[in-house]
Amino acid sequence: MSVLNTKTRFVVVFTILACLTLSLANCAKSGNKADKPDVEKEDTRPLRQRYSTAPQNWPKANWYQGVKQTELAVFISNPKPASEEMLVLGKALFFDNRLGNRNNSCASCHVPANYWTDKAIVAAGGGNRNSPNIQNSWYLNGNLMLDGRAATSAQQITLAIESPHEMAGKVSDLPKRLKAIVGYKPMFVAAYGNEDITEEKILNAIAAFSNSIESGKTAFDDFVEGDYAALSDEQIEGMHLFRTKAGCINCHNGPFFTDLEYHNLGYSLDFDGQYDYGRANFTDKAIDRGKFRTPGLRNVSYTAPYLHNGTVASLDEMVDLLIDSLPQLQGQKIAGTLSPHIKKLNLSYDERNALLAFLGSLNSSRPGVQPPVLPQ
Ligand code: HEC
Ligand code: HEC
After folding, report:
1. Does 165 belong to an annotated binding site?
2. Rounded CA gap, 200 and 208, in Å?
3. CB 366 within 8 A of CB 290
4. Per-residue pLDDT tens over the stretch 260-314
5. 341 close to ligand 2 (CB < 6 Angstrom)
6. 117: Cβ below 6 Å to ligand 2?
7. Letter string b/e over residues 343-360, b meaning 16 or more CB atoms within 10 A of that residue's CB
């Protein structure tokens, strides 16, 4: 023993000290355990097991500072369904190009079989915005249009009918026009109880139909409702990444995967190189420059191209761009200030694929709505 050199002696003393400290710490820990369980302990169970429970018990999401924390949720239907007669009238008006200059009806750009989009980069007619899927847009009330400039359905429909890029009509002309189409009379009687045709009734009937357009149940909904076999392991991993490492849940949340807020993702330039200031176009506030409303993500796999300007051609590309913190890659100029929540994400190729697989679990079946026979 006496031959221990200084180094060895140091190691021995250090080891004894370390052991003491550790056992003291353990003591303190087990002392604590008596009053409260150790919640910090990492949950090492497989993700499928950790998610096979009600959402309030899911692993904690990665919430960014200042974000209103809203969990993902199952699909909900419009709580105020319209009468069958109102929907028949609204549907006819939705498909009727006689509301405008006869080039377009609502259904020209919102084509049912294309998940209510036209698949074009920007809507035909010279506008600078991509035609959105209008499923579940009742939920957007107060925030309609990609910049939120329409507070009500009536305002949104008036904008569509009167826009030179859309239907190039005039709402004030419509009562006269529709009275001249005798087939509309019984439909107004059925919907409203009398044959009076007014601007308000026309807008209200189109709104009723538009707000009845919904997506359907998805594998994601089945899973949240307790069918824990509805998602594959890869989709569950994707959902976990969506809520944690990838941070998507900070903006895409609730039953429709939108926070109904406005964010600047940096894609400010239109296809023709002009700035689209988004929300600032009508609020005139510098802080709103380049901001657009978070779009919902149900059926997103089917609604390419993406973003308000239709510049992103595929969902794979969209996710790759998000992972790379978006715009700079494309040489896009930013109007205003990029959202602080858009960051470079450290995702592996497998994790990127899992995120895409999860987005696929938000798909419902293709709408089977047929065009009506229009009244003459
Ligand atoms: C020429 C193509 C075109 C026509 C016709 C058209 N839309 Fe649209 N629709 C669009 C585009 C593009 C947007 C996004 C506009 C924007 O943000 O400025 C939009 C937005 C909407 C929205 C809001 C969706 C959201 O995410 O905020 C609804 C609802 C809607 N349209 C319904 C209708 C109805 C109802 C009609 C008929 C009265 C109609 N549209 C006619 C292209 C069209
Ligand atoms: C800061 C809020 C925010 C975060 C975080 C965010 N998004 Fe988005 N997302 C948006 C907004 C806003 C748009 C629309 C931007 C535009 O049109 O210019 C969008 C667009 C999209 C689109 C295109 C949808 C369409 O219909 O055009 C997809 C897909 C998407 N996001 C998925 C994701 C995924 C996956 C994540 C996580 C990796 C994510 N987002 C993170 C706000 C966000």
Report:
1. no
2. 12
3. no
4. 999 999 888 887 788 899 999 999 999 999 999 999 999 999 999 999 999 999 9
5. yes
6. no
7. eebebeeebbbbbbbbbb
Residue nearest to atom 36 of ligand 2 (CA): 248
Ligand nearest to the CA of 132: 1
19 is in an annotated binding site: no
Atom number of ligand 1 nearest to Cα 108: 5
Amino acid 100 reads G
Kindly list the structural domains of the chain, giving each domain's residue range(s) and its CATH number in brackets, ordered by start: 47-75+217-360 (1.10.760.10), 84-210 (1.10.760.10)
Q: Is 318 in the pocket of ligand 2 (CB under 6 A)?
A: yes
Cβ 295 under 6 angstroms from ligand 2: yes
pTM of the predicted protein model: 0.90
